[in-house]
Design brief:
Length: 444
């Protein structure tokens, strides 16, 4: 089955981007993690890596074309894999085509009758048709958010999620009353662990690589704003935590299990010394990793790290983990930033698309219960911080509402501590230039 290459989100407020140039031609082979194409936004340009190894086929977007976040731009086929009936190129126009932003499509979505083309068939991408067919979902039940009401993959996934939620609600009405999630303290959804290694992506460069570990309910794409501000020749290793991003869902007994899972993938991908960077829960994991593998960590950079005190906004973490719509997710995401408008509704919609899988949300809810029972941090890494031998940088937002910045005072005197005014829990997204400058000096 071909791998879909999509337009990524590289900015918190990004709804679309311009494809600037392809680095690989139609029919050429490319390795996972290699430069595939460049995109440009209002703020910056960025190189996009291949999500998998394969042969580039069916390029749907040409240089200069404006593409909505999450829309496919090409497909990667395995060697010898037959090409399926997908469009071979984007529609030709006399001018650059602006693909509709998927975010406002909820308010302007057309009815199934309106999206029928001249032949009387519903307009839908091949991937959307396949997903709907495999799930037994009639396309007539799906509202399209693409150009001219075209049904896209995200539209089908949203419809399937709604169908599952309706089925869950129907079963609940027919079942005996049970305690609420808050009082029962158990996940509201069942899920099954998945096999496989944690997902890792890399960016090639020169010198010692920077290994990056994201926070709870995030994934490696959350580093993109910071990556743009870091030196372009700095090699990167991005690790998705268990039950996050494209890593498999795993049932963990506690923080020690989480750290062990990351150590295993670190031992596999780190061929020598690395600089280590972690945010929030990923900061706690990075700190534990520095304690377990001290000889391999050249420097340690921590952004609002967990594990240095009991206080945490457990309600926000649980709210993010269990939110099933953009409307229910947005208020919790807004607690991450210092400014009320720091998280736009379009950003919440894009974030929800990455969290549409109910199993992923259930796994993260369970992980939040394990790591933050009763709304407190159940693990303490202050002793590990005392033992760290690598030069350590700590950056914290003074307006952090998830983890109070005063937990930074647990750091020993040799740790370089920077408290940023007007910044909340995600300094690498709120002020990436300042954070990149601090990290850049620290790496030297």
């Amino acid at each position: 089955m071909p791998v879909e290459v999509i337009m990524p989100k590289v900015d918190m407020d990004m709804a679309r981007g311009t494809l600037a140039i392809w680095h690989v031609a139609e029919g050429e082979a490319v390795k996972k993690g290699a430069a595939l194409f460049d995109i440009e936004t209002d703020k910056a340009a960025m190189e996009v890596e291949a999500p998998a190894s394969g042969i580039l086929r069916q390029i749907l977007a040409q240089p200069g074309q404006v593409i909505a976040v999450g829309s496919p731009v090409a497909y990667l086929y395995a060697e010898g894999e037959a090409v399926v009936g997908l469009p071979s190129a984007a529609p030709e126009t006399s001018e650059v085509m602006a693909v509709a932003d998927p975010a406002p499509a909820i308010a302007t979505a057309q009815t199934p009758a309106q999206v029928a083309d001249e032949a009387g068939d519903l307009r839908a991408t091949p991937v959307a048709r396949r997903l709907a067919r495999e799930a037994g979902l009639a396309l007539a039940e799906v509202l399209g958010s693409g150009p001219r009401g075209r049904i896209q993959r995200a539209d089908v996934e949203t419809a399937l999620a709604r169908r599952e939620l309706k089925a869950t609600a129907s079963q609940a009405l027919q079942s005996p009353p049970i305690l609420s999630y808050a009082t029962q303290n158990t996940p509201p959804l069942e899920w099954s662990p998945q096999p496989g290694d944690l997902h890792v992506t890399t960016r090639k460069g020169t010198g010692t690589p920077l290994a990056m570990i994201h926070g709870f309910a995030a994934d490696s794409t959350g580093w993109l704003a910071l990556e743009r501000a870091l030196p372009r020749d700095l090699p990167l290793i991005r690790i998705d935590l268990p039950s996050h991003g494209r890593s498999p869902l795993r049932r963990l007994a506690g923080f020690a299990d989480l750290a062990k899972a990351v150590v295993q993938v670190f031992d596999r991908v780190a061929e020598g010394p690395v600089h280590l960077l972690g945010h929030s829960l990923g900061g706690a994991v990075a700190l534990a990793l520095s304690d377990i593998r001290p000889r391999q960590v050249r420097t340690l950079s921590l952004l609002s790290p967990a594990g240095l005190g009991p206080e945490i906004d457990g309600a926000a973490l649980n709210g993010i983990a269990r939110a099933s719509t953009a409307d229910s997710l947005a208020p919790w995401l807004k607690r991450l930033t210092a400014r009320p408008d720091g998280i736009s509704h379009d950003f919440a919609k894009a974030a929800m698309l990455a969290r549409i899988d109910p199993d992923l949300r259930a796994a993260q809810q369970e992980l939040a219960q394990v790591l933050f029972p009763d709304g407190v941090q159940a693990f303490d890494l202050t002793a590990a911080l005392e033992r760290v031998t690598a030069p350590t940088l700590m950056v914290w937002g003074r307006d952090d509402r998830i983890l109070p910045w005063k937990q930074a005072l647990a750091a020993p005197g040799e740790v370089a501590l920077h408290l940023l005014r007007g910044v909340g829990h995600v300094p690498h997204m709120e002020d990436p230039d300042t954070v990149a400058a601090l990290i850049g000096r620290h790496l030297k």
